[in-house]
Amino acid sequence: MIPIVDRAHTESISPIWRMPFRPFFWGAALWSMIALLVWQLQLSGWQLPALRGGVVWHSHEMLFGFAAAVVVGFLATAMQTWTGIPSPKGPQLMSLVGLWLLARLGYLFAVVPVWIPVCTEVAFFLLAGFLLGARVLRTRQWRNLFVLPAMLAFAGLSACHWLLPGAQSRVALLALLLVTAIILVIGGRVIPFFTARRFQMPPREKLPFAEWGTHIAAILLLLSVALGLPRTLWAALALVLGVLQLVRILRWHPTRIWAEPMVWSLHLSYWLVVLGCFLAALAWSGIAPSWHSPALHAFAVGGIGGLILSMASRVSLGHTGRVLKAPRLMPLAFAALACSALVRVFWASAPTGFLVAIVTWIVGYALFLLYYTPVLFRPRPDGHPG
User: Fold this and answer.
1) What is the model's pLDDT at position 3?
2) 196 shares a domain with 158
3) Where are the transmembrane segments (predicted)?
4) Would the CA dihedral through 378, 380, 372, 342 be positive or negative?
C-alpha cells in the first residue's frame, strides 16, 4: 500500500515531529545514557536523595523508559509501511512523547508520588496501543495484530513493577522477555531481508518449524514465567528457543556479513540473544544458577541494546532518504555495545566490570547521538515528507 500523505500539512510540522522514530530514537538514546550515569553514581556510593534510584528504578528505566520507547517508535513508524495509513505525527506524536517524558521525570525525582508516573506511563502505552491497533484493525492486517496485546502487556507490567513490591523481579523478567520476544519477531523479518539485499543474494526460504516454533516457544516462556510454573520448564523452553534461533541465524548467511557494519551489527546482537537463551537454560535448570543475571544482561545489553542501536541507525538513514552507509565511527559504536554486553555477562563480578560495561554503552549511544541528531532533527534531503 502507498500511504496517502498530505505533503503541505507534513511540511508545516517541525521535522522531529514528522515520524515517530525521530523523537523516540533520539530521546531513548539520550535517556539510556542519563539513566546509566545515575545508576553508576549510585553503585559508586554517591548519595542522591533527590532521586528515586535503586535497582528497581534501574531495571524499570532500561526496560520501560528505554527499550519500550524504541519499540513504540519503531512499530509506529513501520505501521505506515505495513498498513498504508500515515504514522502518528504532529500533536498525536507530541502527546505520546510528552507522556513518555513525564513518566521518566516522575520516576526520577523522589519527591513525586509514584502513582503519578505510573498513571502517566500506563496512559502512554494505552495511547500507543490505540493508535497502532486502530490501524491494524482498520486494514485487517492480522499478521501485525501482536502490537495491541504487546502494548497492553507493557501497560500492565509497567504498573505492576512499582505497585507489587513482592513481584518486582518476576515482572521485570516478564518485561525483558516481552521485549526479547518482539525482537525475535522483528529480527526474524528484517535481518535476513537486509542481509540478502545488501549482498545481492536470494533470501533463503524460511523454515516454518523455526518461525512458528520461535513464536510458540516465546509465548509459552512468557506464560510459564507469568504463572510461576517450575523453573525447569523455563529452562526447557529457553533451550528450545535458543536452538531455534541458532537454526534461524545460521541460515542468514552469517559468513558473508563482515564487510558491512549495518549488517554485522544486527547479526552480532542476535547472536547475543542466542547466548542469553543458553545461559538462561543453564541457570534456570539449576545446573549453573549463578548465570541468571548474566543471561538476563545478554538479552538486555547485547540483544536489546545492540539491536536497537543497529536498527535505529539503519532506520534513521532509510526513512530520511539518506544512503544506507554507516557514519565513520558507527562501527566503533556497534563494537562498543557488543563489548558492553560481553563485559556485563562475563566480568560483572568485579566493580570495574560494571563501570566498563556502562562506559562502553555510553560511548556507543553518544556516537549515535553525535551522528544522528542532525539526521533526526532536519528535513529529508530529498524533499519528501517523513
Assistant:
1) 46
2) no
3) 24-42, 62-85, 122-138, 145-164, 170-195, 207-227, 233-250, 262-284, 296-317, 329-347, 353-372
4) positive
